[in-house]
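name: query_chain
kind: protein
chains: 1
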Amino acid sequence: MKTNDVIRTYLNQLILNNEIKPIEYKSKEIIFKEGSPCKYVCFILDGEVEISTLSYNGSQEVISLVGKNEFFGQYILFQPNSKYLGDVQAKGPVKLIKISKASLLEYLSKDKDFLEAYISIISNESFNIKQQVKLLSHKNALDRVIFYLDLISKNNICIIDSVSSLAKEVNLPRETVSRILSKLEKEKYLIKEKNTIRIL
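structure:
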């Protein structure tokens, strides 16, 4: 069973036992405000939330999107200064569970499968964050694209949604990524065919 399924099954049992109650939010409703204390880790049963912050020029910048069967607040809850780093808003109708620190510790200590699944999720997310930091540490655009393609490749095959989505992942303009892919193709480093990139 997948880790998220283990979490979902355990939490569903708590709901059936009336130990926790799901909370529903309407589309665009603010769940938590930036800077407010984080007292819960939240698990999304249905829907998606957007976490965003106000930039220095006054525009709202999206930090992350969190969807069904995912947590948010898990990295902040145990911090000494546990405050939300952005506004948490429902993108559409959202149903979620709020779990306090005390309750989470209780659930983790009671059920080994739940504990292992939760640690696995935190570990994978932490690893992905470190990979993202490593990616962004490459200041040279060419190095950044090559690093990312090597990162996502399986048997030298990379599947991408589009050049635009690839550009978003590497935090570069689409035109820059398109030029880099053309250059690498001419240099016979890769072959691009629609949504597939084959590294030679």
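note: Residues 112-137 form the longest helix (26 residues).
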